[in-house]
Every structure is written in structure tokens, then in C-alpha cells.
Amino acid sequence: xxxxxxxxxxxAHAGHPAEYRRVYVWEFPVRSxxxxxxxxxxGLCGTGYLIGAxxxxxxxxxxxxxxxxxxxRFVHFLCAFVYFFNFLVRIYWxxxxxxxxxxxxFFPFTAAQRKEIVDVIKTDVLQVKLHGNLSLGxxxxxxxxxxxxxxxxxxxxxxxxxxxxxxxxxxxxHLFHWIVPLMGGEMNVRYVHHLVLWFFVVFIIVHVYLSxxxxxxxxxxxxxxxxxxxxxxxxxx
Amino acid sequence: xxxxxxxxxxxxxxxxxxxxxxxxxxAVAATMAGLGREGVGEVVSAFxxxxxxxxxxxxxxxxxxxxxxxLRASHPIVADVLLDVLSLNYTETLQxxxxxxxxKCLNDTIQNNKGKYIVLVEGAVPLHDDGVYCMIGxxxxxxxxxxxxxxxxxxxxxxxxxxxxxxxxxxxxxxxATPIQKLVDVPVINVPGCPPIADVMMAxxxxxxxxxxxxxxxxxxxxxxxxxxxxxxxxxxxxxxDAGLFVESFDDENARKGYCLYxxxxxxxxxxxxxxxxxxxxxxxxxxxxxxxxxxxxxxGFWDKGPFYQxxxxxxxxxIESTADTVGAAVGLVTLAGVAAHAVMTNVRKKxxxxxxxxxxxxxx
Lengths: 237, 365
Ligand code: HEM
Ligand code: HEM
Ligand code: SF4
Ligand code: SF4
Description:
By secondary structure, chain A is mostly helical. Chain A has one domain (33-56, 68-234): Transmembrane di-heme cytochromes, Chain C (Fumarate Reductase Cytochrome B subunit, Up-down Bundle). Helices cover 65% and strands 4% of the residues of chain A. Chain A has helices at 2-12, 28-52, 68-96, 111-124, 140-165, 171-174, 179-182, 186-218, 222-228, and strands at 20-24, 230-234. Chain A starts with a helix and ends with a strand. Chain B is elongated and about 105 Å long. The relative contact order of chain B is 0.09. By secondary structure, chain B is an alpha/beta fold. Chain B is built from 16 helices and 9 strands. At the A-B interface, helix 1, helix 3 and helix 8 of A face helix 12, helix 15 and helix 16 of B.
């Protein structure tokens, strides 16, 4: 049916793009969340890796003349706080934002959404269904992956602040200390905190690539949408 | 094994200690228990009247390093006096009695002092195969512990074995070695370490046995006084850590300069113990001061977090050398390669994609 439509159109609109409707998908809090989070994530992964495997870039005769590793850790903690409260803002927006930002999107388990999961796999992995009319907001696979990402965010926040509580007198990190006895000591907490780093590395590679891929494939402004908020939906004819 | 109803001062007198020795002992005991100068008076009046607290020291799955450590406390007067003062009614390693006689000592202590005696436990308790891996006098460690701990006022779990299982609980834990706190209902004070520091042991025992108070404990049952700070927090090499000056191998120039041992596996940043404050062997030194990283001997499961000489534990299933970072980096590279292959595929099939997806948007050629 579609190919029939396409044929008629290509004669009728030769060289004239079809009609698109602008849809405001990502509101400002979602976009600002996204980019603050992206910057913090890159910062956290980079400094986190260095905390685990420090490199020496400068040297000095005496320790008091340098604070290189201390600064790395400071940047990690700085990003950590920004990232954590930014994450809270996004959770809040999941309850008050528009339909595309709603928290329910991250649990794509209705029949239609489950079908879309199969569609997206056909589109992204098997590349056999290249015009699978995907949702305007997050597609179902993306939603599932973001759900995993949010769980990983929570794990990093809890384990991170629990580790931080041993170097802080403030009450806030101590709210997370309960995880330490639960996990049987800080060694395990630190290990899990380190492991999750690699989840994010893989996520970032795939996520950034797929954003561009879908931009190309769907042709409706995926990349610009996370900057400006608008996506384009083809008018039904 | 003195008369249990005698007061502490009474028993010291009969052993030939002077009043001056006694007061000195009280002062040290008060200090160890964390009391101020005002506390000394209280201790003196308590010891003048207080009966010697009966104590039994049980040995289960252990190597006796805790006992060995205990004997090396840096205040000999306290060590002497404590051993004299305490009615140490049962301890396999030191007692003269053996066989039925020893069993009788234990039994009498338990029967005559219900709810008053203190149990010090060295070693873990194996539970697999009905506990046959540790038997004393034909009975399993488990049944002995249950009997002994049932009516105890409190239990001190000496060392990592009793606190968290230590080496015998390391994977795959063939004997089912289990820490004491999981087996008894009375309050347990964990004093982990392999072994714990002598002066820490002494102070905890003083607090409990002599002052009759359980010291304030953290959420893992350890006395806060000694286990609330990491080895790393008071380590004298800390300035090198913050500066990013690390020993890269044990024979390099950095090691000679005394840089931080983090990169050669120091577990000080995750280890709660008093080594860098109290130190060992009468305050002589501690591992890091001798150029070796902390191996985290007072943390649960530290044997399974090895190798000791690398910051990250090895990643299970990928060989002893591989860490989360080697595995993670490999997964990251595979992902990059996958993404690149995907991009190539997409370009190879560009014509098809364009004709299928954007056909109707294209000007006709
Ligand atoms: C979400 C992304 C995050 C990533 C990828 C990340 C990654 C890492 C990594 C790889 C380490 C080194 C662990 C080691 O091998 O010793 C580390 C350490 C640490 N991280 Fe994070 N982290 C994240 C978030 C956080 C957050 C939210 C906090 C909260 C304060 C935090 C606090 C810490 C602390 C306290 C340490 C130990 C630093 C030290 O030894 O001084 N992290 N992080
Ligand atoms: C570097 C770290 C990054 C992280 C951790 C990250 C994370 C996320 C998350 C969690 C979402 C879901 C947003 C929400 O609903 O709240 C999202 C969406 C999105 N991101 Fe990223 N992002 C990163 C980088 C990027 C980059 C570099 C781009 C593009 C150049 C990008 C493009 C997008 C787009 C287009 C969406 C909307 C996708 C959709 O329709 O499902 N992201 N990202
Ligand atoms: S040697 Fe160990 S405990 Fe000392 S500062 Fe370095 S990492 Fe911390
Ligand atoms: S420095 Fe670490 S490994 Fe060594 S005795 Fe102290 S806690 Fe145990």
C-alpha cells in the first residue's frame, strides 16, 4: 500500500517534499537535562576512569606542590552533584511534562509498544524494515534502554554517594551509607561503582551513533530535536 | 583461674601489685576506654568493688594469630593485669587444664554466671556437612558456640575470621565457614583484622569486661573508636595520593621516595582500621610505613578481592590478569567496531534505504 502511495506521490510531487507538521517533542527541561547530563556523564566517566587508573602528568619534588589527583577527584565530585540533582529534575519532569517526557514512556509494555520493539530491532539491527513508522517520542527500544540507563544512574548515585560519605562530614552523602553494610563493605561498593562505568561507555557509543542513524533514516530531525525540541511528523494524506 | 567473687583490687593485691600499680592500671584502662581524666575516679571506685568478670575464650576455625597479637599489647601492665584480672576460665591455647577438667571449667563458668560472663571468640564456625569440619571434644563448633553464647552478656568476635569469615570463608568456602554474628542472638562486637591490632583488642576488652559497657558500634558491629576511619584517612602518604605521585612498581624511584602505594594495590581507601593511627608492635610501624600497601585485612571478603598488588580485583572468568577495565575496554572496542560496521552497512545499502524510505522526497532524475 505504501509503495503505491509513494509511486503516486513521486509523480505528483516530483521534487516537492511532502507536507510535514512540526511537533514540539522535547520541552526545555528535557533538553537542558539531556545536555547537562551528557556533559556530566563524560566528565564522570573520564575522571572516574582516572581515579581507578591514575596517570601522572606532572611532577614536582614534593607532594605539597601538587594537587593533580585531588583535582581529578574534585571534578568527579562536582559533576556528581550536578548530575544527581539534574537527574532528580528529570524524574520530576516525568510527572509534570508533556506526553513524550512522561515516565510511562519508559515502561513500553503495551501490545503496541511490544510490537514496536520488534520493529525497531528489524530497523536497527537486521536492517530489513527501513521505514517502520516509529513513535515520534522515544521508540520502544530506546525507552527500554533509557530505563536501564536510569537504573544505572540510580546505582551510580547510591554507590557514589555512599563512597563519598566516608570523606564528607555533611549529612547528605550519609543518606546513602546504608548500602555499604548491605553490600558487605566498601570494596564491593567501589567495585560495582567501577563496573557500571563500562555500561555507560557502551551506552554512549551506541546512543550517539543510533541518534545519527535514526536522524538519517527517519528524516525528521532527530538530532536537531534534542537541541531545539521540534520533530517533524509527516501529514497523513 | 581465681575466685570469681573477689574484687579486681582484691585480686591484684593478692598477686602482689601495689596500690600505685593499681591506680596506674585504672588510669590506662580509663584512657583505653576513651574516658577523660574525670573517668579515672569512676574506674577506681568500680574496680575497688567490682567482681572479676568471668571470661571464656573460644577457639574455632582460626590460626591463633589473634591470641598472638593480643599478647603483644604495648601496655604490658594492662596485658598482665587483664589476664590476671579477668577470670579467664577457659581458653584452649593457654589453659593448663585439659580433657574433662577443661570441659568442667567451661561448664561451671556458664552455669554459675548466667547472663554475666563474656565470650571471646576466635575463629569462624563451619556449617557444611553438619559442622564436622571443626570438632572439639567430639562436638561441633556450632553446638559449642550455641551453648556458650546462649547465656552470655556479650560476645567479642576476634579478628576477621569471627567477624566476617576471613580466609576459610573465601570462595568457594568449602567448609561453610560462618561469622559469629550470624549465629548468635546476644550482642556481638566485631573486632576485624588479620589479626586485629593488639592495643585495639586490649581497649575493646577493657571497655566491655572492665567497665561493663559495650562500646558504641557502627553498622557493621565494629567499635567506632577504632573502625570509623579508613587507613587512607590518616595515612602519612596521603599527600602523595592527592598530588598524584604514585609508586608504579616496588623497585622504582617513586617507591624509594615513599610515594603513595595506590597503584600497586593499596586498599587503604576502602579499609576501616586504626593501623595508621595506633600502628603495630608498640607503635613501631604499620604495613604502609614499611613500603607495602594495605591488603584490607579487616574488610569482609578481602581474600576474594585480589590480587593484592592491583587496584581492581581480577574479573571472574577472564584470567587472573584481567580486570573490569580490560574487559570493559574490550567490550567498548567491540561496540565501536560494531557501530562502524553498522555505518558501513548502512552506506552500502544506501540506495535501497533511499529508495525505500525517502523515495517520495527525491526529485526525479
Ligand atoms: C554516573 C556516573 C559515574 C561514573 C561512570 C563513575 C565512575 C567512577 C569510577 C570508575 C570510579 C573509580 C573507582 C575505583 O576504581 O576506585 C569512581 C570513584 C568514585 N566516585 Fe564515581 N562515578 C559516577 C558517579 C558518581 C556519583 C554520582 C558520585 C557521588 C558523589 C560518585 C562518587 C565517587 C567517589 C566518592 C569515588 C571514590 C573516589 C576516591 O577514591 O576518592 N561517582 N567513580
Ligand atoms: C554523552 C552522553 C549522553 C548521554 C548520557 C545521553 C543520554 C540520553 C538520555 C538518558 C536520553 C533520554 C532523554 C529523556 O527522555 O530524558 C537521551 C535522548 C536523546 N539523546 Fe542523548 N545522551 C548523550 C549524548 C548525546 C549526543 C552526543 C547526542 C546527539 C548528537 C544525543 C542525542 C539524543 C537524542 C536525539 C535523544 C532523543 C532520542 C529519542 O528520540 O529517543 N545524545 N540521551
Ligand atoms: S598508601 Fe594507601 S592508604 Fe596511604 S594514601 Fe596511598 S592509597 Fe591511601
Ligand atoms: S594496613 Fe590494612 S592490611 Fe595491613 S594490618 Fe592494617 S588493615 Fe590489615
